[in-house]
Amino acid sequence: MAIRPFVALCTAALLAAAGGAAQAAAPGTPAAAVNVFIGTGGDGHTFPGATRPFGMVQLSPDTQVRHFRQSYPWAAGYRYEDNSILGFSHTHFSGAGHSDLGDILLMPYSGDTKLEPGYPERPFSGYRSRFRHEDERAEPGYYAVRLQDHDVDVELTASERVGLHRYRYAKGAGAKVILDLRQSIYDYAGKNLWSSLRVRDNSTITGMRITRGWAPGRQVYFAMKFSRPMAGRALLNREEGVEYKGFAGPGKSAADKAQVEGKALVAALDFGTPDDGTLLVKVALSAVSEDGALANLEEMPGWDFDAERQRAGAAWNEALSAVAIDAPADMRTMVYTSLYHAMLAPSLFMDRDGQYRGPDNQVHQAKGFRYHSTYSLWDTYRALHPLLTLVQPEQRNADFVNSLVASRQHSPHGILPVWAFHGLETWCMIGYHAVPVIADAYMKGIKGINPDEALAAMVASAEYGPYGGLEHYMKLGYVPIDLEPEAASKTVEYAFDDWTIARMAEKMGKKDIAARFYKRAQNYRNVFDIKTGFVRARKSTGEFREPFNPVQSNFGSDYTEGSAWQYSWYMPHDNAGLVGMLGGDAGLQSKIDQVFDAKVDENVYAHMEDISGLIGHYAHGNEPSHHVAYLYNYAGAPWKTQARLAQIVPSQYHNKPDGLSGNDDLGQMSAWLTFTALGFYPVAPGSNEYVIGRPFVDKAVLNLPNGKRFTIRAEGLSAANAYVGSVTLNGKPLAHSFLRHEDIMAGGELTFRMQAAPNKEWGREISARPYSQTGYQQ
């Protein structure tokens, strides 16, 4: 079989770029700094394929082994450790801790037709093909690879709703494509409830599939257009055991059906032998109908792959230009890649005419906003959404909020989403964390939101008794462990959500609602055991559950994806209260020191795949730990925060495929690094404050949504100079260890002067400390 070096393809593309036809990411641009392979190895669960900022299509290679028990490592479909590709599908999560999607899989090939994917360890056992990373190239909006076994070069790019493939076959080879509707990430018997394929004309196919995966009853429709007419086709339902008898011309055989329905559909498509060896495929998605998908195809009317690639790259450069980063090469790449990952979700989920499918699985019409879905809210309310208020247009942030409120209006339960994708609810994780996303946006003055509708949705979610033990929480002031699992975690997370409701209600002048929820926000105290210094689960009869082991962590136990060592510091709205319960500044500092400095046996958390990135008991690979290093500021010791951040960043983030210590969780891990690299972090979204840490870049310029610029400088930054000597804001000394949102939005300059020795006086005074619901003790 002829082997054509992939470098020839790349060289041709670069030569074309020089003439303006195929624009690769230009050196020095933000997109050129992105390494889309960060997180594709280890536990990052990211994908390297082509998509637009917050795009509806995520067109990416799938490499996973088809085995239900192994689905977790392949949550994004692709693992850098693999050496074979199953095909290229159009929907993917970025960094999720759960597997699903991988819809509408295409695989180009030449030679004999194989209808089964085969096995990685057995080359040519199916349509799967081996590949080499040397033959792989990717950047924001573009992916390319050479399929060794099929002798086909593949390039992918995308608009918001359309994925575009370009296949280059060997000279004189037949151009064939497998379309497999059986395949998806997180496969198991019976996942496909129904699917259909229909040939509209000799270059157009439409279809759909309904699945009962993570979001039961999820529907996805597609329209597929080829740049060449089909010379033959076979549309088969493999569940019926139909024997494949080869291709047939139109009307020549029963194998050449124009329409087929069933639970195991696969199509083998033949396009003859192209003179130039090239075949292009456009695939548009819709959640509404096949006709909606056909209409969405018009978003990409032509066949100019290079122009579409250029548009995708330009869209990413525009989005990433919200922040200009000056830093050493690896750090610059890690920050820009983090920003890239932070702009993949929530994803657009409506047709060009504004129609979308909601949590009632019915079709609705968006009016005045663009509907988005895929909200990993337990993760992303912490830092991702606060970051997006700084780096995305105000309308985009309003779209996110309005989508959440619209979902509540369509919800059979009348509450906001918990963890939603493709419009549907999964009920994954805990809390009602759409609430802080909405409150934070409102508190920051995001326009285009109806505050009365939003607040009503927030209160309804917080008072929906059947959800997560809320009926007991409202009655007892805590979630009882004998009546509800993960009770300790639920209590403290509900308390924070309640505080954000109070903040928004207070600003709106709704004093009765504010008072009620400020009181509920103190419920975290009901599960804090002063004697042990830990948050603990309580029974409905009032006593703490015994026996107590602070390192115990199991699914469905007292805590959610964590132990008492990770969850006992979660009252971000009232860290002064935590300081008081631990006996003062020294008590909190000592306790957080113990979190980081503990000698933890590696087997203690080995059974919990989400507890990763360990430094002592601190687990950076999972979200409950993300604010912990910043807690020293609340005890008058910002220098200790600076020291811990210098410990965390180089150990948890690297410019390589396994460069994330845990699931990126739809951008939360990445948002943490983006904020931390800039020098501050939103410990309590809704407070309009950012707790100051220390920067990891020499200079950053935020090009803000209001047209102003906010510059961060780090003078004398080096590995040796890990501590902040002093901070100035617009040339004036900044005495407090936090930054207000209005300070940033006003534009200006924040300057850090770095030094080798800690400044233990800066930020020590109570007047210098960040917001807390209750006051600091004098």
UniProtKB/TrEMBL annotation:
Keywords of the record: Hydrolase, Signal
GO molecular function: carbohydrate binding; peptide-N4-(N-acetyl-beta-glucosaminyl)asparagine amidase activity
Keyword Phosphoprotein listed: no
Signal sequence bounds: 1-24
The keyword Transcription regulation belongs to this UniProt entry's keyword annotation: no
GO biological process: carbohydrate metabolic process; glycoprotein catabolic process
Pfam (any one): Glyco_hydro_92
Residues in coiled coil: none
Protein name, entry field: Glycoside hydrolase family 92 protein
Species this protein is from: Massilia eburnea
